Amino acid sequence: MTLPLSVWNTAPTSAPAQRKGRYVPGSAAHPAKMLPAIAAHAIKTYTHPGDLVLDPMCGIGTTLVEALHLGRNALGIEYEPKWATLASLNARSAAQEDGTGTVRCGDARHLTGLAPTHTRGEVALVVTSPPYGPSVHGQVRSTRDTGERGVVKKHFRYGHDRANLAHVSTTHLLEAFTEILTQCRTMLRPGGTAVVTTRPWRERGELIDLPSAGKAAGKAAGLTPAERCVALLTGIRESQLVSRQSFFQMKNVRDARRQGIPLSVIQHEDVLIFTRPRQHDTHTTTTQHCRATTVSAARTNHTSTSTAALRSRTCTPRDGHGGR
After folding, report:
1. Which among 90, 153, 164, 204 would be 20 to 30 A from 134, CA to CA?
2. The pTM is what?
3. CA-based nearest residue to 184, from 130, 216, 222
């Protein structure tokens, strides 16, 4: 097991180059795929061959594919049947002789009921990511691609089920993500690790500090914060960062700046690393009280401490209108 680094060099090549030849057709349509090198780095750093890796919101199965290629076993849960099917196909194509990949379709808030019974308390590593804001999701086709004027947005929805956490408010997302991490704590073996990748976004001019909220969710779920790292979304060449943002991201930034919103292209993921305490959880009551307090605070007005963490900075557009 290698020593952890605070900055992960996870974009030496572009995302399409990292996925080439490793994922089945149709995988590219998912609006918010994890960078494969981020999952691979976490798996190599925090597990050994033969360990079990879990992603409770696995999408097309990036975490599973990288785990299987590295000789680990993999378990994924995915809410949307379309993505669960693709994740299963990707895991099957990546499976090695000694590794197994399992995908279950369902709500990660019921993780312990969906996962095979023998995996409870046996997971060495959880790698996952909550849904981000719409400004970082999707793809676009330009005039050069379509031959028609204008830019067409595509592949920007996880699905049409309004119960999908990608469609809920930030407050509801935080509440649900705390529930999911609580389930993950049960799945982890004592001393096991949970890696959560996240990033902030802007909503109607306000900065949504999802990394800080994610840390609070992990603590409320009974996990112990261990590290906070940076996973680069840019390459490094001759000591200089090489930006790899998509045309979609650049368009969103330009549109926001025209409205007076100081949006910038995100060049890294915040990586939150938690551990499950090795000792038997003797403070369940305290943990549950903490979670209840967090959820209650999230439901109050914007004057609460919890909500203030989510609305950490407000920027007023020059034209007086909000924007994403």
Report:
1. 90
2. 0.74
3. 222
